[in-house]
Every structure is written in structure tokens, then in C-alpha cells.
Design goal:
The structure holds two protein chains of two kinds. Chain A is an alpha+beta fold. Chain A contains 25 helices and 34 strands. In chain A, strand 5 and strand 6 form a beta hairpin. In chain B, helix 1 crosses helix 2. Classes of the chains: A alpha+beta, B mainly beta.
Chain lengths: 961, 419
């Protein structure tokens, strides 16, 4: 099987309107086609915020060609659309005006929600940024809502503020997500300094803000005739936005967003944005002017929304004043145009250079006379713009032309120009530019839309009737039968009119037909194929539209992708042999036939790296007995591979980054005899079903075999971080990253012990930050919003505490919240013991009372140092639920903070490395489990019992994965 | 992470998703299920978004005033790599600098640089600006510099000096000047101020290979001030200027019209007491929406020496070189007075480049009575101006004149004014 191009994903998931090659088995249409909106998003947990650079983007898009571009041998159609070619409602776009006409009031209201800054009360200035990227002022109004205030340049009043608001209203009406923008006019005295307000200095440093700073900043901005300040207030704290994640890129997808599936350079809403941006002359459209936000409105799961953010350089506005004439007409560098200008010696000049602009307050450089839609150019050559096809342009033009003259005048009124001539000029220019867009792009494809079955005929709207000679077109129709499973189209006899043929009416329900529409006397390749699904008694439904144009050839979706990601062939022969039967069986169980190499390449990166690393370690770990006789290699203990566990967000560290295998007969005995492995405390909490713990001797990294009771199966992983206390609490040893060869410097550690490991994934994905691979600390991030569990007052040392949960809470609160270690340790038994690792190997030592007390004190100190001083216990820790569902937990008041359960005598014995010896009989022991709210924290267990009528902490343990 | 790598990452990640996604024919029965499957598959492959350290560095540069530094010519805050900025003719200069504009709550800005050329010239300087005043309508700054220029050219005084008489001298100067002024209108177009400072000069034999030393070729009267050792001056004066240019570098519209008068007092000998008045007119006429600019410049410098006094060569107005008569060698003409005219027709090539054709004309004269437009030396040529944002950061001019062809490559704009 050949590997597929990224966009083929969308061919396979069927969100395209083009016939799928025979290689894909999915039907052309599904019963739920055409969808109008994306399904409810998958939750996105704790996505990372990251910035882009204005400079690097500018250079990269000028000298490079980032993203996947249209191949030479065909075209890659747009994605993110339904079978009608319409963009799905979702986190990128919501169809508005072109689908359901907005009223004049709705157009004027735009993206605003009535949350303009309150005019009553002062506005607290929180930050002023006079320099650098996005100069402006952050304020909070009397409702404590945050707004970013952006002003006009002193020499060009109203130009930028009006442009920002008008364009945001237009883009909102079209369907893009944009921020709420309000034009506000206010006196200087409304601005007061907030406590702790800051200014970003000209050197990029923050310092305390002064009134003089505010005045100096405002000295550079425009004022109204009455001396008031006019600004755009961008609402910076909408209720449904819980995090700002930085701009989205104009190519590829977000790697941390499960809902972001279509490479951005192939999204129709971004390709079609070219036409829309040309309409409003948004020359500065670029990645850096966008924003991803985490939306958590409580209705749908938290997910990432994609916003267009800045329209500061639209209409007649440019950077800090009127547009430069070349904005919108010339990209940063166009070799052809530059050459003409060079040799033209200033004599040759394109029309845009000679454009005439009015000198009306607020207009800037915006006109329609020299506007040439296909020659319009954004400053940066964006991948989606470069990839756009005639049907993408048609989509954009259709949205632009959906606005009537009155609609446009209503939208322009949102700019609140003081001079009516400015509003009139802007509106007339937009109307004329709209008409030019319609005339140009509707000539490239058949401009037919709104297909429907009406009175037994296929009806449609001809958008070309308003725009030039297209109104004289005559169209022909040819009906075809669609074999939905293969995409084959079979012509129907005597079915050459728009009347629905009788065969279609008689067809089984759910049958599919196509109608190919062409214009008489025009290139037959300029066509539209409309797909109809049959329904009851003529109630047929249009389910698909496919537009054709001269020269349209779909790119071969089976073209090879770069082969340098192949890794299977790089594995050792034994690694391959172990994998082969697993791959074949696994593929067969899924009803597929795949070669082992294909199967391997189809696994996730973490699955492949885990397999590679663990088997590599097994191969390079020799076993010997006490007498030095060889017992073979650790690899030889493995009979078959059952499963490769890679990275699974949300699962425990004991279920990630490991191999599940069957062992050869006698493997358990070999492990017992091998001096390279030692038996650790039995797994009592984690590794459910694999209780016997064998760890490799020596310093980290070392392998861990967790073996089933019958000795037939094991899970095998590599620990890369030291389990030495107390650092193990926070070095990632107790997180999943401990076993992820990609995390931090794990691969280096691996190579230092087992030579020959190739970090083949690095060239593709780079390294993960240390500790990154672990399950996201979503609870920790949600903690701020949690209502803390009420805590009782601090009990004096020596107080009698009746209930165990109260004693545990007292101990933990004294330790983590009050930072009173000595007071907390009054709850420690006089004869505590512990089984922890205090040196550099993997062995756990049994500590006496003195050692236990010292080790616990060290751990407590480290924890205080590592976690910010929490206000309450809820902020500091969270309960850990043992993965074994059979374990009974006790209900108590602090079960969000720690879990509590009774321990068996055997389990109690393991706390002090006394694996087999039963503790003092008759005494009840209880285990307490929790973890710190840090991504690198693991699980800490405390063992309590009652001594002389007082609850005492008798031991503690870290739970290894 | 490089863009290429991001692209590749995404391509591969999604491709891999595809590979593992290929559904059995009956795997899904609805479009929603297919999307769900694709999401599920991607969820298993999530990878944290990461920010390239390069992005952080680039953004940090912007926040440190990179843009503003280009426009004012002093660079971003922090350590700087410096190109150019020394006296013409010493070779390509380079060096390092440091700038901090937010000292004492942004009341004070400082910049210091050190630069050198491979020909042995070097310069260290420091500028302190009281920015707290600049936020109002007053300005105050201090500039001090030491510069050693071993390849200063001298061809003799007057408009009739000969190219064959080329000589070379060493010029060292240590100076400290303060400038205080106010803007006279709310638009900040009018400004006036006073300057006062100290400058110590010294001269010696030049180091230009195969060129004789000025000291050897010219007498003290033919080359006043050369070879007489250290001369210390107190200088002071005032200026008045109207400046409505859109930007000081790469100007597209507006103009600057100014006059400066400065008096030099020779502290040791009294022999070199003199004063100078400089008139400067620059006007920029744009058309075709500023894609074309016709730039005019007229400048004259008049020197007034006391009875029996002399103007030292190194303070005389000169013509010839990268900034005025471009078809003539650097410092081709020296004398007490000068008059200069230049016109350029500039046109837009792309955002980062303008071209220009230009014509220069001017002369030096010993007496003010000869101040007219007859017998002007003239040259012309074509040039390329590299722009970063609006500022011209590099200029390459090719000029032809009676002395032949000259190619110039410099990191400064033409038509400067330093007050």
C-alpha cells in the first residue's frame, strides 16, 4: 500500500466534493451528507500557548514556501467543507449572512455583545505599551472587564479605528470568528492608574506606570474635535474564552488539537479568505494577526477556536496611518514586478501607483478604480492563498457578493465616521470592489448556486446574472447515475434536461444521481456536477456539488511522501522478527492485510519509539547468574509481543510507554537468578495483574519487568529517571515521562547505557521537553476555579484527633499549606519505617526510624520548595485513584485531596521492604494516596495506623510506574 | 522550529494519521463517524505545540525597539552590531555597541559604540539623551566621541585643486557636545536650540598607501591646521529648523529647512578662531502616491574667521564623496565656503528597494563674493536604496563625473542633517 498525502485524510473522511480514487473504499456520500456543521468537538486539554514572530513569518513566507503547495501534476482540493463545498460551521467559521441574511441591526451589531466598556466609572489602566508589536493600552472597566484600547495616529484620525471595526463587522457577518470591537470616545480623565499598573518601556522592560507615561502615550494619538480620545476597545476577557494560545499558523495543523484535522493551507475558509481580504484590502492578513483561544463555554467540551484578530491595516488604513500605496498591490517581494520597476526607471508605472485617493478625514488610501481582484496581493505570500483554486475563489466571491449595497452601508456605519463623506466613500468603494470581484471570479467557474429540486426540476440561482455577460448564458444538463461505493458515474439515456428523469423518481430510496451542467458555447470543462439523493415521491435532496474548470485535474492522492520517516527497516533483525507476527495478527484482527513494515509505520510515534527503545534495551542487556554463567539476553525472555503501549493522554503512567509481552517458559526463574535484576516490592497499586517487580541493577536508566503471577506475561518498560528520594518526587520519575525515550535527555541516558540507539524521530519531531510526555495536569490548571475543600482550624500539636482523615488532613495542611514541618511530624510514629531508594541504583532500601524520619523531612522540605505556597490543600494536592477497580476506598471529607483505603497485612509489610513478613498482627493499617498538582509529580503513599489511641504516620512510599 | 520542519511535521503527522486511519469498507456508516474516527486517531497522536527559541529571540528584538531603532538610526536596545558611521574614506567600519533607552524610568537613554576599520581607523562614542524632556517640548542630549582617521584626503584648497595633488593626513579628535532645544509648535515641526561643546584635534602624517602625506606636500598656509599638533576648541552656537519630513531617513514627503551657526574658539593659539553658518534646504516632492519622489537639496556653508585667523582644513566645508558631489573623490574640494545642489528622482522598485537617478552640482570658494551658481562642478549617476521599514539602511550609488566613475556602498542615507 502506498502512503498517502495529508489531504487524502479528507478524501477519506469524505468532506470533499470530488470523486475519490478507487483506492479509497469509503462511499461517495453518507446518509448524513451534507453536514452543515462539524460534530461536537473533542475536548482539548491544556493546549500549549506559543507565539510566532512577525519577522520570521515575513521572511519565511517571502523566501520560502511553507506548507504543502499545489503539485505540478494536479490540484489538491480544499478541505473543511461539506459535500456541497460549503465550509462547516465550527471553531473556524460559522456561516452567517450568505446562508441566513442578517438584518440591518444584526449587521451593525456585528460581533459585539453589548459588553462595551462601561461609561460609568473610571477605567483602570493596567498596562501601556507604547512601542513594539501592537502598541496600545490595557484597561479594566467598572465591571472588571478587560479591554485593549487601540488608537489612531495623531496625524490620521479615525482611519485605523474605523477600519478595525468595519472590517471586523464584515468578517463576522461573513462567518469568521473575530473579537468584539467597540469604538469608544472618552475624556482623558476617565483613565486612572490601576494599582500595580505597568508600562512596557522602549527597551521591552516593565516598570511602574505613571500619569506622565499615559500622557506621553496619548500625546501621539488622535483626538476628536472636542478634544476627547477615540479608540477601538477590543474585549479581552470574553466569558467563554479560558485561555489565549497564540496565533495559528497558515499551514499544517495544531499538533495538540484533536479537532484540527485539515492542513490550514488546504482549508477553504483560509483559501477563500484571499478574495474577502482583497475586498476590504486587508493587506496585512497573516498568521501573526490571528489568534487561537481555548473556548470553554460549559456547553460544548473545551476546544480551540480560531480567530482573525487584526484588521488595523484594512480599508484605507496601514501601519500607523494611511496605507502605503503598495499595500494590497505588491507583496513584500515579487521578482517580476520588481524587475519591471527596476528597468522601467520610474517611467513605467502600474495603475495602482496612479490611483487617486480622496482627502477625506478617516478614509486613508482606499479606492476601487484601480482595484484588480486577481492582482491584489497580501504582504506575505500565504500558503492557503497560493493554493487557492477557482472553486475557493468562487466561495469567497459568493460571500462577498451576498452583501447588498444597503448591507454594505450598514456595515460601514459601524465605523462611526464623523464626516459622512468618509462613510459614503468607503461604502461606494466597497460596492464597486464587490462588483469587480463578482465579475472576475464568477467568470472562472459556472456561478451556479443554491441547487434544489423544485417542482420536479433541478433549480438553481445564477449568481452571474448580476455580474456581466454571464446573464446571457444557456445551460444544459446531463443526468448520470452514481455508484456511491465506487464513485462511478453512468450516463442515463434520454435525460438531458433539468427535469428530474422518471428513472430517478422510480429509483430506490437513497439512490444517488448526478446532473452535469454546462454552459452552451463554453468550454465543457467549466461545469458543475450536482448530486441528488432520491427520496419519497420526488422529495429528492441535493447532497453534493462538484465544480469543474478548464484544466482541473486532481492530484494523484497516492503519490509517495518522503521516505525518510521509515524506521522499521532500521530496526535490528530480531526486533523486526518479534514485531512481525504481532503486526500480522493485529492487522488481521482489524480486517486488513498489511506488511509488518507498513503496520509499524502506521503506529503512533510514541508507540514506535517505545517499541524501539524497550526492545533495544532488551537486546543489549545480558543476563548472568551468581557464578557468572550466561543466561542469555533479556530479549531472549520474550516469547511474543502482545501490545505496544505508547503515549495515552489521561492514562496512568503504568499504562504508557511499555511493551506487553508473553514470556518464554522459565523466564521468571531466569529473572530470579540473574544478578542483573533484583526483585523489588510487589506492585500493590499499579501494574494491575503484573504484581512481581523485577528491576535492573545499576544507575538509571534501567528496565523494569512487571510479571504476572503465573510468570507467563509481563509489561516491560525503561525508567530513565532516578528513583532516589527525595528528588524522585519531582524529577519526572513518577510521571509517564520517566519511560518516554523522547522526553528531555532520556535518549542520551539510553545511549549511555545501551549504545546504538538512534533518535530517528528527532529530525521529524524534535525532542519533547522534560516531563512533557506525561498526562496533562488538567486538574492543576482547573484548581484555581475549584472551590477549595473547607479546612478546620489548625489543631495544636498533641491534640487528639479521632478520625483518620482529619489526622491526614492535619498532617498535610501543616506540611504543605502552613509550612510547619515540625508540627506535622508530631503525627509521625516513634518507630516509623520506609522502603525507599536513597542512592543511585534502582534498589529500595529499608530504613530505620531515624532514616525514615530524615528522609521524610527531606521530602517535605523539597515539596515546599517545589510547589508555590498554596492557599489551601485543594490547590496543593489531588487524590489518586488506584487503577485496581476491586480496591475499596473509604469515603471522607477530603477525598478530592487524597484517597484512603485499608491495607492488607502483606501490603503493609511492603512499606518497609518486608515483602513476605506480616506486620504486627491485629493492627489495622490504612494507605493514603495523593499527588502534587505538578505535571512532574508522581504518587506518594502514606501508611497510617493507630498507636496508643492516636493516629500515626508509620511509613511512606513512592509508587513507581 | 523551522517553518520547513513544522510543515514537514504536520504533513507527516497527518499522513501517519491517514495510514492508521484507513477504514474498512464498512467501518463507518456516517460522515460524523468518519470525522469522529479521524479525531480519535489524532487524539492518540497529540503532540504539544512548541515555540521555537528563534521566535522568542525575534520577538524579543522587536520588543527591545528594533523598529524604532531602525527609524532613528541608533538600533535596538541591548548589544548591537554596528556597521558604518565613521568618517568617509577610512574603509568599511564595523564594531559593537550597547543601547539602553529606559534608564531611570525612561528619563535617560544611553548608547555607546566602538568601531574600527581594517585600515586602522577607530572610533568610540557615547550619547546620553534626556528623554524625559523629549516627552514634553524640550530636548537635551550629550554626545562625546573619540575618532581616529588615518586616511583623510586633501587635494589642496579651492575649486582649482588638482586630483594629482592628492595627499593624506591623520585626524584625531576628541569632542563632547551638548545640545538643548525646544520645539516651537505642537506639531513639533519647528525646533530651535543651543549647542555648546569642546573639541580637541590633532593631526599627523596620513597612512594611505602610495599617497604622500599632506604635511610633506603642503605648507601650513596651504593646509591650515594640519601638522600643527593639538588644537583645542570651545564651540557653541544655535540652530533653527523647520522639519516636516515624514521620516528622517528615506523621506518621501515634506522637507527640512534649517540654519545653524557655530563659533569655534581656539583655546591655545587664537589662530584658529572662526565661525560657520550652515544653511540647509531639503524638499521632497512625491507623486504617484509616493512611489516616485523628486528630492531637492541646496546647502551652503559660510565660514567667518577673525582678523588674521584661519579655518582649519578639517573644519572646512568639503565637497566630493558619498554624500554630495558623488562623481568626485572624497574630500575632493576644501575651502572656507561651499555651495551645493542636488536633485534626485527616486522610484519604488519593491518594498525593500528604491532606485534613484541623481545629479549633483556644487563648488567651494575662498571668498563669499564668489558665492553664485557659476562654475559649478557637476556629476550624476544612479543609485539603489535598500529600505528596512521606511528607513534607508544601505545605499549603493554609481556616479560619473569629470574625475571618472565612482561606486559607493554605504550604510547611511543621502541628504542628512545633524541638528
Amino acid at each position: 500500500m502506498k502512503e498517502r498525502r495529508p489531504w487524502q485524510l479528507w478524501l477519506m473522511v469524505g468532506l470533499l466534493t470530488v470523486p475519490v480514487s478507487s483506492a479509497a473504499q469509503a462511499p461517495r456520500f453518507y446518509p448524513d451528507d451534507p453536514m452543515s456543521s462539524e460534530p461536537s468537538p473533542y475536548p482539548t486539554y491544556a493546549p500549549e500557548a506559543r507565539a510566532l514572530s512577525e519577522i520570521l513569518e515575513l521572511v519565511g513566507n517571502t523566501v520560502g514556501t511553507p506548507g504543502e503547495r499545489q503539485p505540478h501534476d494536479g490540484v489538491i482540493p480544499a478541505g473543511g467543507v461539506n459535500t456541497l463545498g460549503e465550509v462547516l460551521d465550527g471553531p473556524w467559521f460559522v456561516n452567517r449572512h450568505a446562508t441566513r441574511r442578517l438584518s440591518r441591526e444584526e449587521l451593525i451589531r456585528g460581533p459585539t455583545t453589548g459588553q462595551a466598556p462601561m461609561e460609568s466609572g473610571a477605567w483602570q489602566v493596567l498596562m501601556v505599551k507604547p512601542y513594539g508589536f501592537r502598541p496600545g493600552m490595557l484597561i479594566g472597566d467598572s465591571r472588571r472587564q478587560l479591554y485593549l484600547l487601540l488608537f489612531d495616529n495623531a496625524s490620521s484620525p479615525e482611519v485605523s479605528t474605523a477600519a478595525q471595526v468595519i472590517s471586523s463587522h464584515i468578517l463576522h457577518a461573513i462567518g469568521y470568528h473575530v473579537p468584539e470591537c467597540y469604538i469608544v470616545t472618552f475624556p482623558r480623565k476617565r483613565l486612572v492608574l490601576a494599582e500595580g499598573a505597568e508600562i512596557v518601556s522602549s527597551a521591552g522592560n516593565k516598570r511602574a506606570l505613571t500619569e506622565q507615561d499615559v500622557d506621553a502615550f496619548l500625546h501621539q494619538v488622535a483626538r476628536t474635535a472636542s478634544g476627547q480620545l477615540r479608540a477601538v476597545a477590543i474585549h479581552a476577557s470574553p466569558a467563554d474564552v479560558s485561555g489565549v494560545l497564540g496565533p495559528y499558523q497558515m499551514y499544517a495543523t495544531r499538533s495538540d488539537d484533536p479537532n484540527d484535522l485539515v492542513p490550514h493551507e488546504h482549508r477553504r475558509d483560509l483559501r477563500g479568505l484571499f478574495v474577502i481580504a482583497s475586498w476590504i484590502d486587508l493587506a496585512s492578513v497573516r498568521a501573526i494577526s490571528t489568534m487561537d483561544v481555548l473556548i470553554d463555554d460549559g456547553i460544548v467540551p473545551p476546544h480551540i477556536g480560531h480567530y482573525l484578530l487584526e484588521f488595523w491595516s484594512s480599508l484605507g488604513a496601514g501601519s500607523g496611518g494611511p496605507k502605503r500605496a503598495w499595500d494590497g498591490n505588491d507583496p513584500l517581494f515579487d521578482a517580476g514586478a520588481a524587475l519591471k520597476n527596476l528597468v522601467g526607471f520610474g517611467v513605467w508605472s502600474p495603475a495602482w501607483m496612479r490611483a487617486r485617493y480622496p482627502t477625506i478625514r478617516g478614509v486613508g488610501r482606499f479606492e476601487s478604480e484601480t482595484f484588480d481582484p486577481p492582482r491584489w496581493a497580501s504582504i506575505e505570500r500565504l500558503a492557503p492563498f497560493e493554493n487557492r483554486l477557482p472553486d475557493d475563489d468562487f466561495w469567497g466571491a459568493k460571500l462577498v457578493t451576498s452583501f447588498t449595497d444597503d448591507d454594505i452601508r450598514a456595515l460601514v456605519s459601524a465605523g462611526q465616521y464623523t464626516d459622512p463623506a468618509a462613510a459614503d466613500w468607503i461604502a461606494r468603494s466597497l460596492i464597486a470592489r464587490r462588483d469587480k470581484i463578482g465579475r472576475h471570479y464568477f467568470a472562472k467557474v459556472l456561478p451556479l448556486d443554491g441547487f434544489r429540486i423544485q417542482d420536479g426540476r433541478l433549480a438553481f440561482d445564477d449568481l452571474g446574472t448580476r455580474y456581466g455577460p454571464a446573464s446571457t448564458r444557456t445551460y444544459t444538463a446531463h443526468w448520470l447515475r452514481l455508484v456511491n461505493d465506487t464513485g462511478a458515474l453512468i450516463p442515463l439515456q434520454a435525460a438531458d434536461s433539468f427535469q428530474v428523469p422518471s428513472e430517478v423518481d422510480r429509483a430506490d430510496l437513497g439512490s444517488y444521481y448526478g446532473v452535469r451542467i454546462q454552459a452552451v458555447g463554453e468550454d465543457s470543462e467549466r461545469s458543475v456536477t450536482v448530486y441528488v439523493r432520491t427520496g419519497n415521491v420526488g422529495r429528492h435532496e441535493v447532497v453534493g456539488v462538484d465544480r469543474g474548470w478548464p484544466g482541473k485535474v486532481l492530484a494523484d492522492p497516492n503519490r509517495d511522501i518522503p521516505a525518510n520517516i521509515t524506521r522499521f527497516t532500521g530496526l535490528a533483525a530480531e526486533q523486526q522478527r518479534l514485531y512481525e507476527p504481532y503486526a500480522i495478527a493485529n492487522a488481521e484482527s482489524r480486517g486488513r492485510q498489511m506488511r509488518p513494515a507498513e503496520h509499524f509505520e502506521a503506529q503512533t510515534i510514541s508507540e514506535r519509539t517505545t517499541y524501539d527503545a524497550v526492545t533495544h534495551a532488551l537486546l543489549h542487556s545480558r543476563l548472568t547468574d551468581q557464578q557468572g554463567a550466561s543466561l542469555g539476553r533479556a530479549f531472549d525472555l520474550v516469547a511474543t509481543l502482545e501490545r505496544v503501549a505508547g503515549q495515552y493522554y489521561g492514562r496512568g503512567g503504568d499504562q504508557q510507554f511499555r511493551l506487553y509481552v508473553t514470556l518464554k517458559p522459565g523466564a521468571l526463574d531466569t529473572l530470579e537468578r540473574a544478578v542483573e535484576f533484583f526483585r523489588g516490592p510487589d506492585n500493590s497499586v499499579y501494574h494491575v495483574g503484573y504484581p512481581y517487580d523485577f528491576r535492573q541493577t545499576g544507575r538509571v536508566p534501567n528496565m523494569q519487568f512487571s510479571v504476572s503471577e503465573d510468570g507467563a506475561k509481563a509489561d516491560i518498560d525503561v525508567d530513565y529517571r532516578s528513583s532516589r528520594m527525595p528528588s524522585a518526587l519531582f524529577n519526572g520519575h513518577l510521571s509517564a515521562a520517566n519511560s518516554d525515550v523522547r522526553a528531555g535527555d532520556n535518549v542520551v541516558r539510553h545511549s549511555n547505557r545501551w549504545a546504538g540507539m538512534t533518535a530517528w524521530w528527532r529530525s521529524i519531531f524534535g525532542d519533547l521537553p522534560s516531563g512533557q510526555a506525561g498526562p496533562r495536569d488538567t486538574l492543576a490548571e482547573a484548581a484555581a476555579a475549584e472551590v477549595p475543600t473547607p479546612l478546620p482550624p489548625d489543631r495544636p500539636p498533641g491534640s487528639t484527633i479521632e478520625r483518620l482523615e482529619d489526622a491526614v488532613q492535619e498532617f498535610l495542611t501543616d506540611w504543605l499549606v502552613r509550612h510547619k514541618i515540625d508540627e506535622a511530624l508530631t503525627l509521625l510514629s516513634d518507630r516509623p519505617s520506609a522502603c525507599i531508594n536513597v542512592d543511585d541504583d534502582a534498589k529500595y532500601e529499608s530504613l530505620d526510624a531515624h532514616g525514615t524520619r530524615a528522609a521524610l523531612r527531606d521530602a517535605m522540605r523539597l515539596a515546599i520548595h517545589k510547589i508555590e505556597k498554596p492557599l489551601n490543600l485543594t490547590e496543593a494536592i489531588e487524590a489518586v485513584q488506584p487503577p485496581n477497580p476491586d480496591r475499596q476506598l473509604m469515603a471522607h471529607a477530603f477525598q478530592r485531596e487524597f484517597s484512603m483505603g485499608e491495607l492488607s497485612q502483606a501490603e503493609a509489610a511492603e512499606y518497609s521492604c518486608e515483602h513476605s513478613r506480616v506486620q504486627e498482627t491485629g493492627r489495622m493499617y490504612y494507605g493514603v494516596l495523593f499527588r502534587f498538582k505538578r505535571s512532574d509529580s508522581g504518587v506518594l503513599g502514606l501508611m497510617w495506623t493507630k498507636e496508643a489511641n492516636s493516629w500515626k504516620l508509620v511509613s511512606f512510599q513512592i509508587f513507581d510506574f | 522550529m523551522s517553518r520547513r520542519r513544522v510543515s514537514r511535521l504536520a504533513r507527516i503527522a497527518v499522513t501517519l494519521a491517514c495510514l492508521n486511519l484507513v477504514p474498512a469498507a464498512d467501518a463507518q456508516s456516517t460522515r460524523a463517524e468518519e470525522i469522529d474516527m479521524a479525531r480519535r486517531d489524532k487524539q492518540a497522536r497529540l503532540w504539544p505545540e512548541r515555540e521555537s527559541p528563534l521566535v522568542r529571540q525575534a520577538n524579543d528584538l522587536i520588543e527591545r525597539g528594533f523598529r524604532e531603532g531602525i527609524e532613528d538610526g541608533y538600533g535596538a536596545n541591548g548589544l548591537q552590531f554596528v556597521l558604518g558611521g565613521m568618517r568617509s574614506g577610512q574603509g568599511m567600519s564595523f564594531g559593537g555597541g550597547y543601547r539602553k533607552t529606559d534608564v531611570w524610568g525612561e528619563r535617560i537613554g544611553v548608547r555607546t559604540t566602538g568601531r574600527m576599520t581594517v585600515n586602522g581607523a577607530y572610533m568610540v562614542d557615547a550619547r546620553v539623551t534626556l528623554q524625559g524632556l523629549e516627552f514634553g517640548r524640550s530636548f537635551f542630549n550629550i554626545y562625546t566621541k573619540y575618532e581616529k582617521s588615518p586616511r583623510m584626503d586633501f587635494y589642496g584648497l579651492g575649486p582649482q585643486s588638482r586630483l594629482d595633488d592628492r595627499s593624506s593626513y591623520l585626524l584625531e579628535d576628541l569632542s563632547a557636545d551638548t545640545q538643548f532645544g525646544v520645539t516651537l509648535s505642537t506639531s513639533n515641526h519647528w525646533r530651535t536650540g543651543l549647542t555648546v561643546g569642546y573639541v580637541s584635534t590633532d593631526t599627523g602624517p596620513g597612512h594611505r598607501p602610495n599617497v604622500p602625506s599632506t604635511i610633506d606636500e603642503f605648507t601650513p598656509l596651504e593646509a591650515p591646521g594640519i601638522g600643527v599638533g593639538q588644537i583645542d576648541f570651545i564651540r557653541g552656537g544655535g540652530f533653527l529648523v523647520f522639519d516636516n519630513r515624514d521620516t528622517p531617513s528615506g523621506t518621501r514627503h515634506g522637507g527640512v529647512y534649517g540654519v545653524r551657526w557655530r563659533k569655534y574658539d581656539d583655546l591655545a593659539h587664537g589662530l584658529f578662531d572662526f565661525s560657520q553658518t550652515e544653511f540647509e534646504v531639503q524638499h521632497y516632492l512625491p507623486y504617484f502616491n509616493e512611489t516616485r519622489v523628486i528630492a531637492f537639496r541646496a546647502a551652503t556653508t559660510l565660514s567667518y574667521q577673525d582678523e588674521g585667523g584661519l579655518v582649519p582644513v578639517f573644519f572646512m566645508p568639503t565637497l566630493g564623496g558619498n554624500d554630495d558631489l558623488r562623481g568626485f573623490e572624497r574630500y575632493r574640494y576644501y575651502d572656507n565656503h561651499s555651495v551645493f545642489f542636488s536633485v534626485e528622482h527616486r522610484w519604488y522598485v519593491f518594498r525593500g528597494l528604491d532606485m534613484a537617478v541623481f545629479a549633483d552640482a556644487g563648488k567651494v570658494i575662498p571668498r563669499k563674493a564668489s558665492l553664485n551658481v557659476s562654475d559649478l562642478k557637476a556629476s550624476g549617476g544612479v543609485g539603489f536604496r535598500t529600505r528596512l521599514r521606511d528607513a534607508v539602511v544601505m545605499r549603493t550609488d554609481f556616479a560619473w563625473g569629470p574625475d571618472g566613475f565612482r561606486a559607493m556602498w554605504t550604510f547611511s542615507d543621502i541628504f542628512k542633517i545633524d541638528y
